[in-house]
């Protein structure tokens, strides 16, 4: 990547952590080999997530791991649909169709669908088949606060670092999304945060020698030559304007 100024400056120092979107197990392995975070955009239950998590960290600790960046971001995240309500049936009514539509639309674009821009109506097609979509992996975070909390604890217990939530798909209402976020923060998040500091401390201590060894394996970056630092086109345009 050419030398560039970043504006506005990122909050993290020395820089934001690098992550990689992963949809297959091989891409998770690649993320581990490069020592970047794995954002696993696939629907797996906690037991399956554990297998992927174990494989990711096994590679992180192995000689295969050579960081692509100047630091290490050992982190694995996965994906769930989320809609929290005190009434389980209302949570499903508000959130399940949108989550199903997310999966349907991804499969349509990536696997089997044919799209005529401005003509193909995916929502209408989805309405015709949605009741036949029996398997809804990743929908465990749609429900009452206590069931969602228990569901997410299962991922935390197998060592998944983060959960990414899908809410804004289909015709989900903005006010329902905001209500779910507020209820999640009040009833679900505190129990998950209770153990987070201790879990993070143990993880950092466990990985420290492997991080140090991986950084030693990284080849030194070549010195930046002055010719690599070029005048940007915007600067040229600004100079022309002020002349």
Report on the architecture of this protein:
This protein has 243 residues and is of the alpha/beta class. It has one domain (19-242). Helices cover 50% and strands 10% of the residues. The chain is built from 9 helices and 5 strands; from the N terminus they run βαβαβααβαβαααα. It has helices at 25-33, 46-60, 88-112, 122-129, 145-157, 174-187, 189-194, 196-217, 233-242, and strands at residues 19-22, 37-40, 76-84, 141-143, 162-166. Strand 2 (37-40), helix 2 and strand 3 form a beta-alpha-beta unit. The longest helix is centred in the middle third of the chain and has 25 residues, at 88-112. It is globular and about 60 Å long. It starts with 18 loop residues before the first strand and ends with a helix. The relative contact order is 0.14.
Structural key phrases:
243 residues; 10% strand; globular; alpha/beta; 50% helix
The helicity comes to 40-55%
Summed up, the helix count is: 9
- Mean residue pLDDT: 89
Q: How many E-type strands?
A: 5
Enumerate the spans where pLDDT stays under 50 for 5 or more consecutive residues: none
Fold blueprint:
Blueprint: E1 19-22, H1 25-33, E2 37-40, H2 46-60, E3 76-84, H3 88-112, H4 122-129, E4 141-143, H5 145-157, E5 162-166, H6 174-187, H7 189-194, H8 196-217, H9 233-242
Parallel strand pairs: 1-2, 2-3, 3-4, 3-5
